[in-house]
Amino acid sequence: MCGIVGLHLRDAALYPQLGALLTDMLDQLCDRGPDSAGMAVYGDPIWSPAGESTVSLLDADIAAAELGALLEADLAVAVTVIDLAPTTVLHAPVAPADLVAAARRNAPNARVIGFGEELTVVKGVGNPTELAHRFGLPAASGWQGVAHTRMATESAVTAAGSHPFSVGPDQCLVHNGSFSNHMSVKHELERHGVVFDSENDTEVGARFIAGQLADGVDLEKALLLLNERFDGFYTLLVANRESFAVVRDPIACKPAVIAETPRWVAMASEYRALANLPGVADARIFEPEPEEVYVWHRQ
């Protein structure tokens, strides 16, 4: 089953409401994925302050204060550590790659689940609404958010297996469905040096797209290439610091609905997740067509 929600805000007056709106959307789809959940927020000034890089770690086996001290000694700058167990959020005034490298040196058993200049990813196991409130999502602000409720089918019920999958800078992907040929694609990527963190089929799609973007392909073309290479039944929502995109497989059997107004664009697995958005009564509401890529860019 699984449930996808995403909100791309065009009106800056709505930025302070991003977390509250996303939490309500997520809450409506808890029954589609009660196992675990994850959320990605772009532009929150606490989680991802301007002028600093942010890294999200999962299952760090070191206390937050100790990790912060180790990172400050390593990088010779002030490092903020936010404990949202099992996620730890770090930010510091260094390049994202430098903060990722330092995090891996000092917390080698932790998994990097998000990094960039505007993106914060948090994940956990349990009821999605309870997780959202425990993480503080309702108070988050920003210009874009994505969330996912998971019903595990391809891998174990763990926070590591939950979505979003974020494997490129300021990039994330959520997925409802399954890729039937993901192992063949994974082996091909591994032959080109790509390293995987999980057995989840969604990570294969995320790393395929990240590789295309790293090669200079735009997001729309990357998703068209994914449609050509991957088999299965899927609806994907892919976000980065500039764009918000939706694509479905050729049969489009996995549910999806999009609503668009001058103030925002939203996507969800079911309309009930969109029903409480401001101005939804006047929105253009439609079901995305099979294999067609829909992309909205940051204004």
Automatic annotation (TrEMBL):
Known EC number: 2.6.1.16
Top EC group: transferase
Native source species: Nocardia aurea
Pfam families recorded: GATase_6 (PF13522)
Entry protein name: glutamine--fructose-6-phosphate transaminase (isomerizing)
Keywords, ordered alphabetically: Glutamine amidotransferase, Transferase
Residue ranges constituting the Glutamine amidotransferase type-2 domain according to the UniProt record: 2-299
SUPFAM superfamilies in alphabetical order: N-terminal nucleophile aminohydrolases (Ntn hydrolases)
